[in-house]
Design goal:
Blueprint (H helix, E strand, L loop, with lengths): L1 E12 L6 E12 L2 H10 L8 E4 L2 H12 L7 E4 L6 E7 L3 E8 L7 H14 L6 E4 L8 H13 L4 E4 L13 E2 L3 H8 L9 H15 L3 E5 L5 E4 L4 E4 L12 H15 L3 H16 L9 H12 L1
Parallel strand pairs: 1-5, 3-4, 7-8, 8-9, 9-10
Antiparallel strand pairs: 1-2, 5-6, 10-11, 11-12
Helix pairs in contact: 1-7, 3-4, 7-8, 8-9
Length: 307
């Protein structure tokens, strides 16, 4: 995805309608969606291979320029003349208040030709990977066939898979290593209701359902301001969040996915991984717009936690 930002100031209401008038001061493009996952991975010192499908349009050109600027290899990113490049435009006033978001996208499933191209690219790069992240936004690129093919081959190669699901493909991630829905996605997927603040017994019951229905290894549920719940079939635990000045939650899930993937690739244990992802996700929420976590910031937060 391409994330576009229009920054400006508001000093009056339009005489045409009861809406603010934004005097534009700056326009900016950033990597979004799976691109933001890749950017977080790159920021923390690893090499991401970004495999996806864009349109063949002006927005795709902006996206490829950003990838080259950030030194993220673009050669596994495919263009299709049959699609639009998903673009989210956010209008932000007075430095931090988001007024509106405008989405321009095509979320139809890939046609067979594009699906085969994408599958071939994934299989080409997979043997070089230390971990695989499915950054699923229900935009039509991922489907059950592709997901299961990749998970099956990754398991054969002993490569961990990290699934960040959305509604359409929720149950397609059978046998994923780590399954990372947020509480809303979990509620919709399992048709369960959760109390807030969260109750451990309800989360344990949900994790057991995931283990039973999907045969995953790790349930990893983000709880927004309440932290992260993890369960490895042996025990469940809530890693509470840290007090933050929250400005924008955009992209926090991407950061969590990236840090979880790197943690698994490095062999950290489950609860170390949960602590680290919890810190990283909180850091990016203190900033406006979609941004990656910086290693020095994460290191400082880890040192504070140890102290």
């Amino acid at each position: 995805m391409l994330d576009a930002y229009i920054w400006g100031n508001v000093s009056r209401i339009s005489p045409e309608a009861p809406v603010p008038v934004v005097l534009v001061s700056q326009k900016e493009y950033r990597l979004g969606g799976a691109g933001n996952v890749a950017l977080n991975i790159k920021s923390l010192g690893a090499a991401p291979f970004l495999v996806s499908m864009t349109g063949d349009d002006e927005e795709a050109s902006f996206l490829f320029n950003l990838l080259n600027e950030k030194k993220i290899a673009p050669e596994f990113l495919l263009k299709s003349s049959m699609r639009k490049t998903t673009t989210k435009t956010r209008i932000i006033a007075n430095h931090q208040q988001q007024l509106i978001r405008i989405d321009n996208e095509d979320s139809r499933p890939l046609n067979e030709f594009d699906q085969n191209l994408l599958t071939d690219k994934v299989m080409e790069i997979l043997p070089l990977a230390d971990a695989v992240v499915f950054s699923d936004y229900d935009k039509g690129v991922l489907n059950q066939k592709i997901i299961q093919l990749v998970i099956s081959e990754a398991r054969r190669l002993h490569i961990p898979t990290i699934a960040d699901p959305k509604k359409d493909n929720f149950f397609s991630y059978q046998q994923a290593t780590l399954f990372k829905p947020n509480l809303k996605e979990l509620q919709e997927g399992l048709q369960m209701t959760f109390r807030r603040p969260v109750v451990m017994e309800e989360l344990n019951a949900a994790a057991n359902k995931l283990f039973e229905k999907m045969n995953i290894d790790i349930a990893f549920i983000t709880l927004s301001d309440e932290g992260i719940y993890v369960n490895n079939r042996e025990s469940g635990k809530i890693i509470p969040s840290h007090k933050r000045n929250i400005y924008d939650v955009s992209g926090a899930g991407d950061t969590v996915s990236a840090v979880a993937a790197l943690s698994m690739a490095c062999g950290l244990d489950l609860f170390q991984m949960a602590e680290l992802t919890n810190l990283a996700g909180g850091i990016v929420c203190e900033k406006v717009g979609v941004v990656p976590v910086e290693p020095e910031e994460l290191r400082n937060e880890m040192n504070k936690l140890k102290d």
